Amino acid sequence: MTSASRASSLTVLVLGADGYIGWPMTMHLSRLGHRVVAVDNLARRRWDREGGTYSLLPIKSMPQRVRRWQELTKNAIEWRRADLTDFAAVDRLFAEFKPAAVVHFAEQRSAPFSMIDREHAVFTQVNNVAGTLNLLFAIRDRVPDCHLIKLGTMGEYGTPNIDIEEGYLDIEHNGRRDRLPFPKVPGSFYHLSKVHDSANIHFACRVWGIRATDLNQGVVYGVGTEDTALHPDLSTRFDFDSIWGTALNRFCVQAAVGQPLTVYGKGGQTRGYLDIRDTMACITLALENPAERSECRVFNQFTEQFSINQLAELVSLTRAQHGLETAVSHIPNPRFETESHYYNAKHQHLLDLGLKPHMLGDTLLDSVIGKVAKYAKRVDPVLLAKPSVTWKSGGNEVWKQYSAKGGSSAIAGSAMIRPGFSQTRAKAAV
Ligand code: NAD
Ligand code: USQ
What is the mean pLDDT of the chain? Predict the structure, then answer.
């Protein structure tokens, strides 16, 4: 049975639709026949300008992408620019569209960005936590039956020395038993914002009867999906710098341009990973199999776990098959994290719903490296090699050098970091 045949057409708000995952998700749901409303405040493009970072693959503006998609596929996407921290804007969206489901990607999602300084930590938590709270109130008051599909992160759990369950832990303490949210020891102010979101969503489900799926997603890799491949104008962003680029994507770019792979510290840090195409499948499965009213369902959304050393070895082996040598460099770890630890996270719920994972192998790595190699001339070797934020002291010389190029801070005018001021909504020129 195809996805399209299992679910009738739903009105879905995709929040954070201009992002790495949000844009392919918007197209995916549109192709499946859903009425898709794509929402973003374009903040990521501002944060890039602030920090002197950019997508390796050139990306079009939202209106251009939407036009190209409609022209090629005859499927509509409705584009709305809105900031989730602006409750009036959120409320208008819910009043206008009465969505059956909301897929919520729209957060500041970089751990290093949240560790630059006080302003970036406060901004991250207010942007993420207040945005999600606004959504919960809009759902309660406008569309109580709406299914909230929220992107959380595996990093909420940290790296405990016990197996990680999917959201909840059956626990016996002093002779009494209970089922409680799994303990969380996250590793950055960003990851903490997701923990706060999860607690707020869990509370709203219990008290207001909201239905929610909290997807604790692992690190995503890959350069696109079948939809982004239709035309260069449909490319999604691909980050390679140390603030926005994630481990395996960065390693693919480093291999493509012949730079050493930057393993932080000992490299035993183990995380869950998934192909961006599996992200599409997981979210579609959650959409088509909604949570019950009052249920706060938690899925661990990843397909395989790897240590950083294992990822570096896989990339090196893939290159060796073409006779190419890849250096691996263990550089001082800019983060505060355990570099050698036990890690065993459950991830059964999405498999039970029918997920058929794409496993990481030579072919996939070859195709990602091959694709990014075409854009090798756009790579800034300093952004690729040098971490610009450390957990102990924040933005370093590299951050200062590149953010000076970017001009004024994209968050400096925000009321969110200066209580008492009304919010300035920066106008991005995209
Ligand atoms: P991204 O930065 O590429 O996209 C996020 C989008 O949200 C951006 O376009 C940004 O402009 C928008 N946004 C941020 N704050 C907003 C606000 N207040 N109002 C409206 N729009 C806002 O991030 P991504 O990699 O696509 O990640 C999407 C989601 O998935 C995030 O919530 C992230 O935490 C989560 N996630 C990502 C990964 C990963 O490896 N990329 C892994 C696990 C979880
Ligand atoms: N790492 C390296 N070398 C690098 C980059 C990273 O060794 O060049 C290490 C980091 O120290 C860390 C691990 O790789 O131990 C993962 O780092 P990352 O930058 O790939 O991912 P992270 O900061 O955890 O954040 C990313 C996304 C975030 C998402 C998270 C999923 O940016 O939005 O929530 O992955 S998870 O890691 O499961 O929490």
Answer: 93
Ordered by start, the domain boundaries in the chain are 8-428
Do residues 379 and 49 touch, judged by C-beta distance below 8 A? no
Per-residue model confidence (pLDDT) at position 429: 30
What is the helix (H) or strand (E) element at residue 301, kind and residue range?
strand 296-301
Which CATH number applies to 8-428: 3.40.50.300, 3.10.20.30, 3.40.50.720, 3.20.20.140? 3.40.50.720
pLDDT in tens, 363-389: 889 999 999 999 999 999 999 999 999
Q: Ligand 2 center to residue 218 CA distance, Å?
A: 9
pLDDT of residue 412: 57
73 is catalytic: no
CA 239 to chain centre: 12
Both tokens assigned to 266: 């000992």
SS (H, E, C) 356-415: CCCCCCHHHHHHHHHHHHCCHHHCCHHHHHCCCEECCCEECHHHHHHHHHHCCCCCCCCC
Span 292-302, pLDDT tens digits: 999 999 999 99
pLDDT tens per residue, range 177-210: 999 999 999 999 999 999 999 999 999 999 999 9
The position carrying tokens 């012949």 is: 258
Atom of ligand 1 nearest to the CA of 44: 11
Give, using CA atoms, the residue closest to atom 19 of ligand 1: 83
Which residue shows structure tokens 């890039």? 48
* Residue ranges of the chain whose pLDDT lies below 50: 1-6, 415-430
Provide the strand spans (E) within 97-253: 101-104, 147-153, 168-173, 176-181, 211-217, 219-221
Which ligand does the CA of 215 lie closest to?
1
User: How many C-beta atoms lie closer than 10 Å to residue 176's C-beta?
Assistant: 7
* Burial class of residue 359 in the structure, from the number of CB atoms within 10 Å of its CB (0-12 exposed, 13-18 middle, 19+ buried): exposed
Residue 168 near residue 180 (C-beta atoms within 8 A): yes
- Angle CA(53)–CA(55)–CA(60) in degrees, nearest 5? 125
